[in-house]
Amino acid sequence: xxxxxxxxxxxxxxxxxxxxxxxxxxxxxxxxxxxxxxxxxxxxxxxxxxxxxxxxxxxxxxxxxxxxxxxxxxxxxxxxxxxxxxxxxxxxxxxxxxxxxxxxxxxxxxxxxxxxxxxxxxxxxxxxxxxxxxxxxxxxxxxxxxxxxxxxxxxxxxxxxxxxxxxxxxxxxxxxxxxxxxxxxxxxxxxxxxxxxxxxxxxx
Length: 204
Description:
Blueprint: H1 8-15, H2 46-60, H3 66-78, H4 83-93, H5 95-101, H6 108-116, E1 120-122, E2 125-126, E3 139-142, H7 150-157, E4 167-170, E5 175-178, H8 195-203
Helix pairs in contact: 2-8, 3-4, 4-8, 5-6
């Protein structure tokens, strides 16, 4: 797995959106991009809009690397049905996304870290691969020895986010179940995501 090279808030500044809807985001104070030319008004081209849509999705899920993201896109194309909905479903099935959605971690980056460090069990077995795909009906829980970690307890108690209805979660036990893959409309994104533009980007 490639290491994240930049601060998550730099991603916010570069894209000009509060990607995770967090109160600390610098975009809440400055909506323009970084650098001396950041305040110039730019009208993006079709390519620019498509690229922005791709960067937003990649960034939101913990700044996924291009190679890995392209693999997910290829799998979304291969599956039957709407490619955009398939793409969102596959991204939401990632273990780090599920751990974040279940409020066992404050950010997708923290979710990836606690998975890598072996704090998460899937169907009772430790799984430390953040990109692993969770199946319908799988149980995801925090390991017994890790349930007192301040990071996890604070995330679970936070009122910053709600748990979506495609997951069932027992917050006290720090255990949940992945019910089904969501549609785009089911996912509580703080900003508008446009998977159709991502498909256009890769279809050029």
